[in-house]
Structure formats: C-alpha cells, structure tokens
TrEMBL record:
Catalytic reactions of this protein: 2-deoxy-D-ribose 5-phosphate = D-glyceraldehyde 3-phosphate + acetaldehyde
Cellular component terms per the entry's GO annotation: cytoplasm
Locations listed in the record: Cytoplasm
TM region(s), chain numbering: none
Gene name in the database record: deoC
CDD domains, A to Z: DeoC (cd00959)
InterPro entries, per database record: Aldolase_TIM, DeoC, DeoC/FbaB/LacD_aldolase, DeoC_typeI
Protein name: Deoxyribose-phosphate aldolase
Listed GO MF terms: deoxyribose-phosphate aldolase activity
Active site: D89, K152, K182
Keyword Cytoplasm applies: yes
Organism, scientific name: Brachybacterium ginsengisoli
Listed pathway(s): Carbohydrate degradation; 2-deoxy-D-ribose 1-phosphate degradation; D-glyceraldehyde 3-phosphate and acetaldehyde from 2-deoxy-alpha-D-ribose 1-phosphate: step 2/2
Length: 221
C-alpha cells in the first residue's frame, strides 16, 4: 500500500466524530464527507446509531474512561451491533492494566467479544499513553487471547496523550500480522498519518481527515 497516495491513505481511515456535543446534522455531514473522501468507515457515538452510509460504520463502547462493568460494555456493544454497527471500539479498563490484572482485562474483552461476535469487528482501545511498554505488550496479548480483531492506541480523550510511532511499532511487534493495529489520538498531519502506517498501523482514527489528506493540519481527535 502506497500511503503517499491520498486515496490509499483514505482507505485506512475511520472518519471520526465523538464529540459529546455532536448533533444528528453533524453526523450527516460526517457521512457525506466520508463518502466523498472514500474513507474506510465513519466512527460515531452509539447514541447516533443507526446510520445510513455506503462506508462501514464503527462505534465505541465503555467510552472514554473504560471504567464500566464488563456487562455494561457488553450490552452497549450488542445493542450497537443490532443497530447496524460493523465495528466496535471498546475501551479497556486501564486501571486493571496498570495494576497488572491481565486476567481481568482478558475477561472483560472476552465478555464484549461474546456479546458482539464476528463478523462484528472488535477493536480494543488500550490507552497506550497511560501504560508502560510492558503493560502495552501484556494488554495486547490479552486482547488477542480474548478474540479481538484489532488493538488501538488511544481514545483521543486521555490527558496523557495519543498515538506515537514507538507504541504503534511495539503493538505491531506484539500482535504480528494476526491482529490489526489502529493508531488514533493526536494525528493531525498527513506526515504523522503516514508515519503511523510506516510504523505498523493498519487503520487510522482521524477527525480531520480532509485537512490531513490534503496536506494541511487537522484539529481535534
């Protein structure tokens, strides 16, 4: 894949709108832009479902803190799937990861996976900026054991920060070619997006997709 080709890069993007103040009109504009740009998907809050579009539809669960009971995350994922979500990006309980409780991390991911089985694509947001390298490796391994399809760097809402090339490369080394790796949070230029792809990202979470694809500087997620 030639990431310097805007259309190829667009095909890796989850065009994202997760602002709490977003309206239905904002989502409709997001859909129009995603279809025009040729992004892989849109990613919207679960309350905005269902959404009619020609691209894939992704949503989130346990967002943005991850401090929800596994059963709550599972209900949210199942409900989103019944409303047409093709993909669910779940936030893991970062506190469990920081405490080294990786069996509990695996359990909650598996609980969501069981609630929203394949063909729904399950991405696990690990909030990598809040973890050290050892913890990042361990939660990626837990996600793979639990049946996730992707591991994802960040919500884009954590004060510790978003994606870095180092973390994307570490996640890719950990999961190999068995899982996807999604880079998200703080990617605001085309150069940064291309660097994430070069580091091993197979999907990008962007809210300023048009500006980035056109070589400008984006804002937000």
């Amino acid at each position: 894949m030639n990431s310097s080709d805007p259309s190829a890069l667009a095909g890796l993007i989850d065009h994202t709108l997760l602002k709490p103040e977003a309206t239905a009109a904002d989502v409709a504009a997001l859909v129009r832009e995603a279809e025009e740009l040729g992004t892989y998907s849109i990613c919207v809050s679960p309350s905005m479902l269902p959404v009619q579009t020609t691209v894939k539809v992704a949503t989130v669960c346990g967002f943005p803190s991850g401090q929800h009971a596994p059963e709550v995350k599972a209900f949210e994922a199942r409900d989103s799937a019944t409303k047409g979500a093709d993909e669910v990006d779940m936030v893991l309980n970062v506190g469990l990861a920081r405490a080294g409780e990786y069996d509990a991390v695996e359990h909650e991911i598996r609980t969501v996976r069981d609630a929203a089985p394949s063909p729904v694509v399950l991405k696990v947001i690990i909030e990598s900026a809040a973890l050290d390298d050892e913890q990042i490796v361990a939660v990626c391994q837990a996600a793979e054991r639990a049946g996730a399809d992707f591991v994802k760097t960040s919500t884009g809402f954590h004060p510790a920060g978003g994606a870095t090339e180092h973390v994307v490369a570490l996640m890719r080394r950990t999961v190999g070619d068995r899982l996807g790796v999604k880079a998200s949070g703080g990617i605001r230029t085309r150069e940064a997006a291309e660097a994430m792809v070069a580091a091993g990202a197979s999907r990008l979470g962007l809210s300023s997709s048009r500006a980035i694809l056109e070589g400008g500087t984006g804002t937000g997620y």
